[in-house]
Amino acid sequence: MEERVAERLRGALGPFGFEVHAFKVGWYNAVLQPAFHLPYPDDTLAFVVLSTPSMFDKALKPFVNKERLKIIRDPVDQCVSHHLSLVKEKFPDQKVDVIFDYEILPSRKPKFLAQTAAHVAGAAYYYQRKDVKLDPWGKKKIYGVCIHPKYGGWFAIRGLLLFPDIRVLFLEQSAPVDCVSTEEKRIELLEQFNFHWQDGRYRDIIEVKERYSEEQKAYFATPPAERFRLLGLTQEAQ
């Protein structure tokens, strides 16, 4: 069942530069405090959705050209929402719940922890402070970061698709590829991500097969309020 669903999802989202990776809700809940648990039975089928570098040209630009007058908030969020809503139509006989990466609970906590979901689904390795044996940071707060085996840091986690009526008792968990395997490289990655994230060097911690285009880098480096102009959107569209 999981394979059939995954195939249909890949067919719907792959051509637009998205990747999907299956996991069981129980794998995610097992590594988190109860406050962050997803409220579904452990064997519920779920997928984490990533955007790859090609999403900008394959999904975002065509979406903006077509929906120009309907774009009222962040174009990327609206584009992702559009494509994940279309996915629901591919499953007329199934309930599909969608959670987006930007959604928060009334408590201000995120609705799901994106990097943990990517890690348990085997999509990208979530490197954290605990992955470094000789910790050089003392009392500093150090945030973790996901690295994709093909795209390094040139990707984003966009949301979850949950199938509450599908139970997958025998789904096998794939470990994410540990592509930053030396202690020195992990320290370098966390240093760059925490203290120099603006220059984006952490994204190239491994040799990548594809990265954001110059146009895409410029777009994401621009303050959100000014991005409309880069996409040729007018003030009215905002």
Automatic annotation (TrEMBL):
InterPro entries found in the cross-reference section: MMACHC
Main location group: cytoplasm
Pfam families to which the protein is assigned, alphabetical: MMACHC
Acetylation among keywords: no
Top-rank lineage group of the source organism: Eukaryota
A molecular function GO annotation: cyanocobalamin reductase (cyanide-eliminating) (NADP+) activity
Any one GO biological process: cobalamin metabolic process
EC nos: 1.16.1.6, 2.5.1.151
GO CC aspect terms: cytoplasm
Location within or outside the cell: Cytoplasm
Cofactor: FMN; FAD
Catalytic activity, as annotated: apo-[alkylcobalamin reductase] + an R-cob(III)alamin + glutathione = cob(I)alamin-[alkylcobalamin reductase] + an S-substituted glutathione + H(+); apo-[alkylcobalamin reductase] + adenosylcob(III)alamin + glutathione = S-adenosylglutathione + cob(I)alamin-[alkylcobalamin reductase] + H(+); apo-[alkylcobalamin reductase] + methylcob(III)alamin + glutathione = S-methyl glutathione + cob(I)alamin-[alkylcobalamin reductase] + H(+); 2 cob(II)alamin-[cyanocobalamin reductase] + 2 hydrogen cyanide + NADP(+) = 2 cyanocob(III)alamin + 2 apo-[cyanocobalamin reductase] + NADPH + H(+)
CDD domains in the record: MMACHC-like
Assigned keywords, A-Z: Cobalamin, Cobalt, Cytoplasm, FAD, Flavoprotein, FMN, NADP, Oxidoreductase
PANTHER family: CYANOCOBALAMIN REDUCTASE _ ALKYLCOBALAMIN DEALKYLASE, METHYLMALONIC ACIDURIA AND HOMOCYSTINURIA TYPE C PROTEIN
Homology family: Belongs to the MMACHC family.
Protein name: Cyanocobalamin reductase / alkylcobalamin dealkylase
Gene source species: Fregetta grallaria
Gene from which the chain derives: Mmachc
